Amino acid sequence: MANTSDIRNGLCIKYNHDIYKIIEFLHVKPGKGPAFVRTKLKSVTTGKVIDNTFSAGHKIDDVRVETHKFQYLYAEGDTYHFMNTEDYNQITLQKSTLDAPGLLKEGEVVTVIINSEDQMPLSVEMPASVILEVTATEPGVKGNTATNATKPATVETGAEVMVPLFINEGDKIKIETEKGTYKERIKE
């Protein structure tokens, strides 16, 4: 058993007969009244995100987890195939367990969180950012960069990302996986 002082991003807990992963938290100490922790919890079974507030000192039931590196192989409909980089065993996961499936490129190494008790995969953590090639976008217009104007661009995985006007087809861009936003252009 853990309590609210142990809450951190990525912690998996049992709550309301389901397993949730904490994706955001904030310790709040109001001027009047007791302290509390405001959290955003993501269900590892359904992918649904809920808001919850725990009072200070509240006991939470944490889940023992292991992390393993897996390489993404390919997708088949809503099923994604991964290979363990240590023992080469393959697993399949549903699209709902992935945080950003649209940004997943074949060969990408991700961290899979596995429940220690029953060896069931709970969630997949993507790298902080990925580098992808732009496959389709409208051509940029010279001198059109005075404002933070953006345009849609399709990357090699099929995902659509808003990019600055100077990005053209064939450019490689770095994308922040947590928010799915453009970070910078990569020059080779």
Automatic annotation (TrEMBL):
Protein's pathway: Protein biosynthesis; polypeptide chain elongation
Keyword Mitochondrion: no
InterPro entries attached to this UniProt entry: Elong-fact-P_C (IPR015365), NA-bd_OB-fold (IPR012340), Rib_uL2_dom2 (IPR014722), Transl_elong_fac_P/YeiP (IPR020599), Transl_elong_KOW-like (IPR013185), Transl_elong_P/YeiP_cen (IPR001059), Transl_elong_P/YeiP_CS (IPR013852), Transl_elongation_fac_P (IPR011768)
Domain Elongation factor P C-terminal span(s) in chain numbering: 130-185
Keywords from the named record: Cytoplasm, Elongation factor, Protein biosynthesis
Molecular function as annotated in GO: translation elongation factor activity
Function: Involved in peptide bond synthesis. Stimulates efficient translation and peptide-bond synthesis on native or reconstituted 70S ribosomes in vitro. Probably functions indirectly by altering the affinity of the ribosome for aminoacyl-tRNA, thus increasing their reactivity as acceptors for peptidyl transferase.
GO biological process, one term: peptide biosynthetic process
Family statement: Belongs to the elongation factor P family.
Chain ranges of the Translation elongation factor P/YeiP central domain: 67-122
Coiled-coil region: none
Pfam families to which the protein is assigned, alphabetical: EFP, EFP_N, Elong-fact-P_C
Presence of keyword Cytoplasm: yes
Main subcellular location of this protein, as a coarse class: cytoplasm
Gene designation per UniProt: efp
One CC-aspect GO term: cytosol
Localisation per UniProt entry: Cytoplasm
UniProt-listed SMART domains: EFP, Elong-fact-P_C
Signal peptide: none
Name of protein: Elongation factor P
